Amino acid sequence: MGHDLNLNAMNYFEAVARLGGVSKAAEELGVSASAVSQQIRQLEQQFGVRLFRREKRRLILTLDGERLFQTTTQAFRMMRDVRSAIVRQRENRHFIMRVSPSFGVRWLAPRLKGFLDANPGWDLRVDGAPDFSDFETEIVDLDLRYGAGDWSGLHQEAVVHDFVLPMCSPSYLEELKEQSGDPIGQLLKARLIDSVKTHFRWDFWLARHGAMGGRMVYPLRFDRSTMAIQVAADGAGVVLESATLASKELERGDLLPLSRAFEVIKVPTYWLVCPSRHTNRRIVRLFSDWMRKEGSAHDAKTADMLRGLGCTIKEEESTLLSRDIDDARQ
């Protein structure tokens, strides 16, 4: 019998039982009263029982009718609720993205108001997490990923660069200069702060500058760039980080380049990443266009600031840099 249930008749029955009459049900359903009565008769024939009895021109549910009504009214209410939720979701405009925590707090968040002002009416959810999205199992429109841009099978576009250099507070720099006038000598005496999740770490940088020595263990290690930068600004040591994340500290003078002798390495590290099909979504196109403009403006401003501090900038490709880093760690 379950395969032969007439859902249209069940819908008519639920309306009659809920509203207490055929005429009211017909009005709600937008059909004639005779059509409703016919469906009720067919349903009673299908079940082989009476679902209503008439008392003084009123329809009263029988015991079987009451049992059926309790089930159908709950089921149809749930279906109506789901339908309303789907309609509301379709009418609302949602954008869900994931971003690395430090970049989200230090770079993206201060700029988001500009995006929202330019694109009103969107509901935005930002998931600040270090883990990349699994686009096949998670509901995510776009990742703003940190890395080398080597995610096979996904659309990827570099939009923001890192400007990597060793930095410390003015007071700590004076301490180091009192111990040595040579930048490499200063490094060998410095307390090094390690950002353990950055793509560009001390072991590679020291090897590149011929300053490895015994400096493979660092007394201060942090898994968030925000903490590493703050500790350096407080005068605890020298941090190898990006001016992209430490721009405010550099602008205020809370951090200074350790030495003009060390080139700043500019490398693409923040990427728009998603399945190619997501690029057809309007919100992904809008956000991508905005990120390109913001990223380009940021890169130009950061480069100007660093040159104003006397730094020389060397631009490198992320794939080549990644290979050199792997070689240095072996």
Model description:
With 330 residues, the chain is α/β, with parallel strands linked by helices. 49% of the residues lie in helices and 21% in strands. It has helices at residues 7-19, 22-29, 33-47, 63-91, 101-118, 170-179, 183-189, 202-208, 225-233, 247-252, 282-308, 318-329, and strands spanning 52-55, 58-61, 93-99, 122-128, 142-146, 155-168, 192-195, 220-222, 238-242, 256-257, 264-274, 313-315. Strands 3, 4, 5, 6, 7, 8, 9, 10, 11 and 12 form a 10-stranded mixed sheet that branches. The radius of gyration is 33 Å and the shape is rod-shaped. The chain starts with 6 loop residues before the first helix and ends with a helix.
List keywords for this structure.
two-stranded antiparallel ribbon; 10-stranded mixed beta sheet; 12 strands; 330 residues; 12 helices; 21% strand; alpha/beta
Task: Give the SSE layout.
Layout: H1 7-19, H2 22-29, H3 33-47, E1 52-55, E2 58-61, H4 63-91, E3 93-99, H5 101-118, E4 122-128, E5 142-146, E6 155-168, H6 170-179, H7 183-189, E7 192-195, H8 202-208, E8 220-222, H9 225-233, E9 238-242, H10 247-252, E10 256-257, E11 264-274, H11 282-308, E12 313-315, H12 318-329
Parallel strand pairs: 3-4, 3-5, 7-8, 7-9, 11-12
Antiparallel strand pairs: 1-2, 5-11, 6-9, 6-10, 6-11
